[in-house]
Amino acid sequence: MTGADAGDRHRAPGHRLSQVVADFARDPERTVITIADLLGAIGDRAFGALLLLFAAPNAIPVSLPGVSTVLGTPIVFLALQLMLGRNAPWLPAFLSRRAMPRAAFAHAIDVVLPWLQRAERLLKPRLCWLASGPVERLIGLVCLVLATVLALPIPFGNMPPALAICVLALALLEKDGLATLLGLAVAAVALFIAWGVLLGIVKAVSLFLRHLLGL
């Protein structure tokens, strides 16, 4: 597969992703939005767009009840498939049927949209080999690890891994190898922070138990 072919796999003709999701979130005929609806709206934009949309609500510093629960689990499935080299994403029925109120989804999109539009203006196809082919599998592996960390109940632990997934997803979507390098750097920082927080929690619990038991 050539770099151009790989790029086509992650792009859909027509509108930019920001416009597609904005129109979808503001559709007054919808009261709830299922993941299946979202998949249908995105079409063949594949892994990059899906990872971005599922991770972005976890990367913003506002409370969005229910959104992270609905959108968090699919990241694991998508990252695993990307790591295994699948050509198109697939989600099991129990995930694709999960729904959230359209208002909650629209609120998340309204917060994310300016950042997505800015990223679309900045990113462009360059060093495409760093955002396609075998490197895609590496990105899938990194996103899988980040998604696992994202699922852990780490205080303030959602934003760094979600931000790293967003950057890597944009790299895939725009075939921008520089964005891949940036995303991997953000991922390293996110994992370092998560490890430090977990280590601190373990030490605190250990000291508490020792004090409690009089050791």
The helicity comes to over 70%
Tell me the strand percentage band.
under 5%
In angstroms, what separates the terminal alpha carbons?
62 Å
Strand segment count:
2
H and E order = HHEHHHHEHHHH
Number of domains: 1
Q: Main beta sheet: strand number and arrangement?
A: 2 strands, antiparallel
Write a concise keyword list for the protein shown above.
single chain; mainly alpha; two-stranded antiparallel ribbon; 2 strands
Layout of helices and strands:
Elements: H1 3-9, H2 17-25, E1 32-34, H3 35-42, H4 46-59, H5 67-83, H6 93-96, E2 99-101, H7 102-122, H8 134-151, H9 159-174, H10 177-213
Helix pairs in contact: 2-7, 4-5, 4-9, 5-8, 8-9, 8-10, 9-10
What is this structure, in a nutshell?
This protein has helices at residues 3-9, 17-25, 35-42, 46-59, 67-83, 93-96, 102-122, 134-151, 159-174, 177-213, and strands at residues 32-34, 99-101. Residues 1-14 have low confidence and may be disordered.
